[in-house]
């Protein structure tokens, strides 16, 4: 596999993937780097110095000021192979920085380099304080995960439901309802990890999607994450992983009385799924945020609080054995603002969306037996 320069897109990429590459690996302008400098510390690195170790949980965010930094991954035999090279003005990292997942790759300096280093806590502070930087960084992290550039820069994953079959299974492994930060993170992780995934993005209205403007006004929320164009790019790229994205559709009804579960879309289509993640957020507008979760479409099937937020884990009625993020209905999970007791800001939502996918895997594995 050739090494990707994480700046200009490789010459052989079609235009749509070249545009995706440019947004996944943007070069920060000097003015934004200067603003980021207030949150970190400048450092030097000699060639070969390891900045991040694969498997470690101690993580940091680096902006290349001068030089080159290479991301590497161990192959099946344990040998390190190069995945991509970051250059001046670019930054390392992925959504894993906001989760409890260990580092997926090793990053090391390739040349004598100068870098700006931000700890995980400092990056979180920057994200919440610097909107223009936050939108660039979070968009890049989301697209990197959707593209899953670690292993196969623009290849596909093996799907749980269709492996060894020439025909797609009409029942989805996972339906993610809601296209905000929590839903996007959940769908990106699920699809890249081999689950046949559907993201219904319009249930959490973003950008040019009609309906409720549920993101504005929530502390720490970045509305640029969910613009319609991003969801459309996600739709194009995620098909390579068996994911399907409906950016402007909403869910009108849920039936928890059968399995696989059924959800009806606003255009009358029926979707069947073995598991479900509810990530539909809270109802509100730019001026105020109302005190109701966007969960009326659940038709009372799940245990909720008086705001409509979904109880999960042991707080869910009759679910003393429920998994983390799991509702009173086995295999139905809630993340982000729609989950009772959640922290209502973008970083917490991303972390919950990513973490819930691990629990979905456990549920599907258990139900398969």
From TrEMBL:
Residues 24-144 form the Cyclic nucleotide-binding domain. Keywords: FAD, Flavoprotein, Oxidoreductase. It holds the Pfam family cNMP_binding. It comes from the Bacteria. Its cofactor is FAD. GO terms for molecular function: oxidoreductase activity. This is Cyclic nucleotide-binding domain-containing protein. It comes from Achromobacter animicus.
């Amino acid at each position: 596999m050739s090494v990707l320069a994480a700046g200009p897109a490789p010459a052989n990429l079609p235009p749509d993937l070249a545009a995706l590459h440019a947004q996944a690996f943007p070069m920060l302008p000097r003015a934004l780097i200067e603003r980021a400098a207030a949150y970190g510390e400048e450092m030097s690195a000699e060639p070969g110095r390891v900045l991040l170790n694969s498997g470690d949980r101690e993580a940091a965010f680096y902006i290349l000021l001068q030089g080159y930094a290479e991301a590497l991954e161990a192959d099946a035999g344990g040998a390190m192979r190069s995945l991509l090279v970051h250059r001046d003005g670019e930054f390392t990292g992925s959504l894993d920085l906001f989760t409890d997942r260990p580092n997926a790759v090793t990053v090391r300096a390739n040349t004598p380099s100068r870098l700006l280093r931000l700890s995980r806590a400092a990056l979180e502070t920057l994200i919440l304080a610097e909107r223009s930087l936050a939108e660039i960084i979070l968009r890049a992290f989301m697209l990197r995960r959707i593209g899953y550039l670690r292993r196969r820069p623009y290849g596909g994953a093996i799907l749980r439901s269709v492996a060894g079959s020439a025909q797609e299974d009409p029942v989805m492994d996972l339906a993610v309802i809601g296209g905000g930060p929590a839903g996007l993170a959940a769908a990106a992780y699920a699809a890249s990890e081999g689950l046949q995934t559907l993201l219904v993005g319009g249930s959490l209205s973003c950008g040019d999607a009609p309906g409720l403007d549920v993101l504005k006004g929530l502390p720490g929320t970045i509305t640029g994450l969910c613009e319609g164009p991003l969801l459309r790019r996600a739709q194009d790229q995620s098909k390579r992983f068996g994911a399907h994205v409906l950016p402007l559709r909403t869910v009108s009804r849920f039936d928890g009385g059968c399995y696989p579960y059924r959800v009806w879309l606003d255009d009358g289509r029926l979707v069947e799924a073995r598991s479900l993640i509810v990530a539909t957020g809270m109802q509100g507008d730019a001026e105020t945020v109302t005190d109701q979760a966007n969960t009326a479409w659940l038709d009372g099937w799940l245990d909720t609080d008086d705001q409509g937020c979904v109880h999960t884990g042991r707080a869910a009625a009759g679910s003393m054995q429920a998994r983390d993020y799991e509702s009173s209905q086995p295999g139905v999970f809630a993340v982000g603002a729609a989950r009772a007791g959640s922290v209502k800001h973008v970083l917490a939502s991303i972390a919950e969306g990513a973490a819930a996918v691990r629990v979905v895997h456990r549920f599907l594995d258990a139900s398969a037996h």
